[in-house]
Amino acid sequence: MINKNKIPILEEFYSIQGEGANSGKATYFVRLGGCDLACHWCDSKETWNPKNYNYKEIGSIIENAKKTTTDSILITGGEPLAYNFNEFCKQAKSNKFKMLLETSGAFDISGNWDWICMSPKRQKPPKEIFYQIANEMKVIIYEPEDLAWAEECEKKVHNKNMALYLQPEWNKFETTKLLAIDYVKKYPQWKLSIQIHKLLNIP
Q1: Fewer CB within 10 Å of terminal CB in the chain, N or C?
Q2: pLDDT at 1 > cutoff 50
Q3: Beta strands at 54-57 and 6-16: parallel, antiparallel or unpaired
Q4: Secondary structure E strands in the chain
Q5: Between the CA atoms of 117, 107, 37 and 18, what dihedral angle is there, to the nearest 10 degrees?
Q6: How far apart are CA 93 and CA 76, in angstroms?
Q7: Helix/strand/coil for 121
Q8: Residue 90 scores a pLDDT above 70
Q9: Ordered DSSP codes for 168-187
Q10: Domains and CATH numbers, the chain
Q11: What totals of helices (H) and strands (E) does the chain contain, helices first?
């Protein structure tokens, strides 16, 4: 039986958000274990192995976040929405935290979020609801075909206030940055997202 007061996490830490619309913001990160998308360029492949994560009490995680000076908790993965986040968000908000989510959008929505970043994947596309409720869409650019995928996803967006980002895949950065930059210059409704935490060598 699933315990609603526990979630499977790989790590939790206090750092600076390095991607997308909230880039540069001091944030408490909670990285969940578990993901069935298996993106070959994934920079968190350790989340795939159940041996690497443990179930932890929600209250304990929130208490750790309270020891910092941030007002925001970011849930990332893995794929967070493989689990139900109603209870976590309820407890976090009762402690005055803003809840931020990074998701592929491939699973049903749960939880009460202040900001949703959707990063759609071709092998398991997002559910339609995320094109309505996400605050930002961040497409990872690994190869030219990903630009066509970004264009396909943009056509489905119902939230006209959604921020659109292309993010060059880090391991091929010298190549992927050129693809992303050229596309953004042609289609300025998109913005460039750079992983500044990797540039600065911080967690």
Answers
A1: N
A2: no
A3: antiparallel
A4: 6-16, 26-32, 54-57, 72-76, 98-103, 115-118, 136-141, 163-168, 190-192
A5: 20
A6: 17
A7: strand
A8: yes
A9: E-GGGHHHHHHHHHHHHHH-
A10: 6-199 (3.20.20.70)
A11: 6, 9
In this predicted structure, what is the pLDDT of residue 56? Answer: 93
Strands 72-76 and 26-32: parallel
Using alpha carbons, select from 95, 126, 98, 127 the residue that is nearest to residue 113: 98
What SS3 class is residue 145? helix
Cα–Cα dist 68/10, whole Å: 19
pLDDT one-digit tens code per residue, 23-65: 999 999 999 986 655 555 555 555 556 666 789 999 999 999 9
Q: Would strands 163-168 and 136-141 be described as parallel, antiparallel, or unpaired?
A: parallel
| Residue 11 CB-half CA count within 13 A | 8
Smallest CA-to-CA distance from 179 within 154, 200, 149, 137 is with 149
Rounded alpha-carbon distances, angstroms, from residue 160 to 3, 128, 157, 201: 37, 15, 7, 34
Q: pLDDT for 105-132, tens place per residue?
A: 999 999 999 999 999 999 899 999 999 9
Q: Between vectors from CA 111 to CA 163 and to CA 123, what angle results, nearest 5°?
A: 60
Non-local (6+) Cβ contacts of 117 within 8 A are: 20, 21, 22, 100, 101, 102, 103, 134, 135, 136, 137, 138
Closest CA to 27 of 71, 63, 77: 71
